[in-house]
């Protein structure tokens, strides 16, 4: 054996530290995740009542962030799944599914039996086979107070031709996580990074896993070379020839002095490249140094892949942290990365031009995105004409653009970039959005407003507001959401659940209630967790469900 270098020892030391931290996080978060499993199982029991597909033409989905927006592989439709919403006091998680018809500008909500549990910060990838498939992996579920988290490691596929959900139960999956990235690379789903968080600890990942769509098997890749440091919410883009993926940016945090979390915004780029086939296949990391005008450091940006192998990056936030405050600078700029030229450049929108002006400047490519270094200079006469057009309102449309935001959902279909939702902050208030914009990536002229922001959706409950106000908001959400939100279903189905579950007898304590009704709750947990779940875990979840119900009734 060759002698280990100082660098090898450093890498091994970092791996051991990461392994110890993961074990520590896993132990501390096990108890709280078991409590959340009971809540998740309760919601799944509600979903289990769906026995057939129901498609309903509806208004645009409610405000949310950290959902997934995907382009249908065979139809002019977008697919929105999951996400989260916070109103200042309560966190709502979703597992609703919407289809947006691009030509008709209409939304359809599809209620499908046995969907994945509610989640956010997951990943979804469309695969063009069998009428189209939507693959979903991981994500997180949060308690209503936002203090506890459950991280999924499940894999689901939505068969778009039959509108059926299927959970793929195979061993070897990555550990539970959210904020990871997943892309289609040839016939594999590649998953990189993410994080796992409990009430007291967290860990960020830089491992990479592959799921083979032909053999339905997981494998953990062990690339050579120096790869990205652990992070979440990065940009992951397949290279045009399908030989690998590019990783850019992301976010991570560490415990600093005085036990204060210190966040790090990454702005490095790495290439993971595949060489060889089958048993001889090897993966290698290498550092990439792109040219051009790079985006300012940020996290929470939206990403998509455009025509010609161009990666798109929109918005995001740069947090300024000190020991007492955290303030964010939000963006609404758009950058393009040309994977063939290894070059960043900012997108410059042209705005509407008059027909006369288009004819006169016919030699200048109408749909071309012009980097600053190659921008055509205009004469004084042309500038005067532009000013006249602006006075006539010609530039008004160019000013219509999405407001600065982070954690929005983005995808590309038929050469158009679509952007939905997200959030920004005003002081201590979080504003969650439900608007939809489109930008023609060939013309690069103006943003088109498809769904305007609904001012009524901008509720925010201050800490000083009374419990009575909160109850009124919950009742309103239940009436308007028709069971979409976590709190809505909880409130709207109370009467039905009370009639179905064994009642708490007067004066009965928790231990006595659990002992008397144990068989019922374990049976309910088994029905929701499936036949493959271990008896010990099913029993724990059953008792936790009994505890949740008992405390609700007490």
TrEMBL record:
Signal peptide: none
Biased composition (Acidic residues): 378-393, 460-499
Organism: Conger conger
Compositionally biased tracts (Basic and acidic residues): 11-24
Protein name: Kelch domain-containing protein 4
InterPro entries: Kelch-typ_b-propeller (IPR015915), Kelch_domain_protein (IPR052588)
Segments of this protein annotated with the region Disordered: 1-33, 348-402, 459-512
Source species, domain of life: Eukaryota
The organism's taxonomic lineage, starting at the top: Eukaryota, Metazoa, Chordata, Craniata, Vertebrata
SUPFAM superfamilies xrefs: Kelch motif
Sequence ranges of Basic residues compositional bias: 1-10, 350-362
């Amino acid at each position: 054996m060759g002698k280990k270098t100082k660098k090898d020892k450093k890498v091994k030391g970092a791996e051991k530290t990461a392994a110890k931290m993961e074990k520590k996080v896993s132990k501390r978060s096990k108890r709280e995740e078991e409590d959340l499993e009971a809540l998740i199982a309760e919601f799944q029991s509600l979903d289990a009542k769906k026995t057939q597909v129901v498609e309903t033409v509806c208004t645009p989905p409610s405000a949310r962030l950290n959902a997934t927006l995907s382009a249908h592989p065979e139809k002019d439709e977008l697919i929105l799944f999951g996400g989260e919403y916070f109103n200042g006091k309560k966190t709502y998680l979703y597992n609703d599914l919407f289809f947006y018809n691009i030509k008709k500008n209409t939304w359809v909500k599809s209620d499908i039996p046995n969907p994945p549990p509610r989640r956010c910060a997951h990943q979804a990838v469309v695969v063009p086979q069998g009428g189209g498939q939507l693959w979903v992996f991981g994500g997180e579920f949060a308690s209503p107070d936002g203090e506890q988290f459950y991280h999924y490691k499940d894999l689901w596929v939505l068969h778009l031709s039959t509108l059926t959900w299927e959970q793929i139960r195979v061993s070897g999956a990555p550990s539970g996580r959210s904020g990871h990235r997943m892309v289609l690379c040839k016939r594999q789903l590649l998953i990189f990074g993410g994080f796992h968080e409990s009430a007291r600890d967290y860990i960020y990942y830089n491992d990479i896993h592959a799921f083979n769509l032909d053999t339905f098997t997981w494998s953990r890749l062990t690339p050579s070379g120096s790869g990205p440091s652990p992070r979440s919410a990065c940009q992951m883009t397949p290279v045009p020839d399908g030989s690998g993926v590019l990783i850019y940016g992301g976010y991570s945090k560490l415990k600093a002095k005085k036990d204060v979390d210190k966040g790090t915004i990454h702005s490095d780029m790495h290439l993971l490249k595949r060489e060889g086939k089958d048993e001889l296949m090897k993966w290698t990391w290498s550092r990439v140094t792109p040219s051009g005008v790079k985006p300012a450091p940020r996290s929470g940006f939206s990403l998509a892949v455009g025509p010609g192998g161009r990666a798109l990056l929109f918005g995001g936030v740069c947090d300024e942290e000190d020991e007492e405050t955290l303030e964010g600078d939000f963006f609404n700029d758009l950058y393009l990365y040309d994977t063939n030229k290894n070059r960043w450049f900012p997108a410059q929108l042209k705005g509407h031009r008059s027909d006369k002006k288009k004819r006169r400047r016919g030699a200048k490519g109408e749909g071309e995105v012009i980097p600053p270094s190659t921008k055509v200079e205009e004469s004084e006469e042309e500038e005067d004409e532009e000013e006249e057009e602006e006075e006539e309102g010609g530039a008004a449309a160019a000013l219509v653009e999405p407001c600065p935001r982070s954690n929005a959902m983005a995808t590309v279909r038929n050469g158009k970039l679509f952007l939905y939702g997200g959030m920004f902050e005003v002081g201590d208030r979080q504003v969650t959005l439900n608007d939809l914009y489109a930008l023609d990536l060939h013309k690069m002229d103006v943003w088109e407003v498809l769904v305007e922001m609904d001012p009524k959706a901008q509720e925010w409950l201050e800490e000083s507001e009374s419990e009575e106000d909160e109850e009124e908001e919950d009742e309103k959400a239940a009436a308007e959401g028709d069971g979409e939100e976590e709190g809505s279903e909880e409130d709207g189905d109370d009467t039905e659940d009370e009639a179905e579950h064994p009642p708490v007898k007067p004066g009965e304590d928790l231990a006595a209630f659990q002992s008397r009704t144990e068989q019922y709750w374990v049976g309910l947990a088994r029905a929701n967790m499936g036949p493959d779940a271990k008896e010990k875990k099913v029993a724990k979840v059953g008792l936790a469900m009994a505890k949740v119900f008992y405390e609700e009734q007490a």
